[in-house]
Design brief:
The chain is built from four helices and three strands. The protein has helices spanning 12-21, 28-38, 47-59, 83-108; strands spanning 26-27, 63-69, 75-81. The radius of gyration is 17 Å and the shape is elongated. Residues 1-5 have low confidence and may be disordered.
Length: 116
């Protein structure tokens, strides 16, 4: 892992994409840009991984999609959260918050020298 960017832990991409779509429909590039901008460039999603995740989540019923025009007048597929996707976002956010807090507890714990 470099100092400039963070590698995504397995399973985080779905929750990040769901969160990016919580405010409204976006095309894939818009989702990736939102994640990059929101994390101050710490997380940059590879295009192949993003579109694989979008298609997987659409098959699971978490996303709906429709074709439209992007801000530069190009045909693009726009994704939006379904009701099931909103539920998954809520459930996933709670799980990730518990997980992150547990990791932070370990990282903040004092270490006793000489402990085995």
């Amino acid at each position: 892992m470099s100092d400039d960017t963070l590698n995504l832990l397995q399973g985080t991409l779905d929750i990040l994409v769901l969160k990016a779509l919580a405010a409204g429909p976006q095309h894939g590039y818009g989702v990736a840009r939102w994640i990059r901008d929101t994390t101050d460039d710490a997380l940059q999603i590879e295009e192949g991984a993003l579109y694989t995740a979008l298609h997987r989540m659409e098959k699971r019923g978490w996303l709906a999609s429709e074709w439209g025009l992007s801000e530069n007048n190009r045909k693009a597929k726009f994704y939006s959260l379904s009701t099931a996707g909103r539920r998954e976002l809520e459930t996933g956010a709670r799980s990730w918050s518990r997980y992150a807090e547990a990791v932070f507890k370990v990282l903040r714990a004092p270490v006793e020298e000489g402990a085995s």
